[in-house]
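From the pipeline queue, job 12 of 40. The input is one protein chain; the requested action is below.

Action: predict structure.
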Amino acid sequence: MLTPDQCIVPSWSAPQSVKALVTTRQGGVSAAPYDSLNLGIAVGDNPEHVALNRARVSAFLPSTPRWLKQVHGPRVVSADDISTPPEADAAVTSTPGVVCVVQMADCLPVLFATGDGRKVGAAHAGWRGLAAGVLESTVAALDADPATVSAWLGPAIGPTAFEVGDEVRDAFVGHDPRAADAFVPHGPGKWLADLFSLARLRLAAAGLTQIFGGGLCTVSDPARFFSHRRDRVSGRMAAMVWIDRPGTAV
């Protein structure tokens, strides 16, 4: 059975009315290599197991998460309007009880909350989406002064594990020369990329000053985290954020 201590609760400056939860791979029913709390429906796991895992997570939430069909792009949607998963990599809401969610197994999840607690969002930032501007698009969709917005960076592939080619480095450095500091040479035409630093740079350029989290490496912690880069066949975790309904405790 899933217990709260098997999940991660972000430590950030969001208002008390904003709640957030990040799952690990622990507390589910899926068999290897999806053991055990796999929440991804398109990775080859038994659909009945995934449904049971999602039900276990939903027991901690005010409503069923508004799942997305993630495509590594910059599109942001309103979680309020989701009935079937749309192709998008971020969602925002201002409706209490509506849960924004993104899945990951190395890509970076970023959770957002406005300073007044009236709007929240979740973004899935692999390198392609990050380079395409998914974080900036999510900040814009929050429609608030960026200086009042809090962001939290969840578990992702760490800077000692994320080997990339010249094309990835060029995509970021061409946009902002300061991104060069996030790449360490790792052989001819190869680099180790710091996804956390790249995200912080993008968020800071968008006007955010309250940026938290980062540093939890999915690849180096197989007991807690799924990792596609490490295992190739892997389950998915989820990062969720919502506004508490008045008078309820979740």
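Job complete. The CA atoms of residues 150 and 210 lie 5 Å apart.
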